[in-house]
Amino acid sequence: MAYDSNNIFAKILRGEAPAFKVFEDEFSLAFMDVMPQIDGHTLVIPKDDAETILDVDPQILGKTAQTVQTVGAAVQAAFASPGFMVAQLNGSAAGQTVSHLHFHIMPRYEGLEFKMHAREMADFALLETHAQRIRTELS
Ligand code: AMP
Questions:
Q1: Which of 73, 99, 118, 134 is most buried by its number of CB atoms within 10 A?
Q2: Which active-site residues does the annotation give?
């Protein structure tokens, strides 16, 4: 299926929609999920017109994976989580709701479950403090 350049992450990449950005380079962008399933829930996206992992340029995918690794470490440190999860959904049948490839980074703690997927909008002031904690770890 053709890439839909009107999706919200494409708009964020073009600077047409706001985002709580924590990291950006030539190949990828990382920002806070506005409906986090847990504090620190961060998204990493490639700078490529790709809906799923099957569509992305492999070199950009490799660079984006490096960003997932770098930002994952920063999220884990910023939220003092003993573990973190990386999740990536391909297609609506898999639960994908935004049609631009993205990786979820979510801190994990023993016995602490996630909130529902993409349901509750976060307080933006709180989200900015979370973004700043991650930026501090990356700096
Ligand atoms: P998925 O279901 O894997 O496609 O996940 C899409 C994610 O994007 C969900 O976790 C949403 O909460 C998140 N999301 C949707 N719109 C925005 C936005 N404008 N900025 C940041 N995150 C968003």
A1: 134
A2: 102
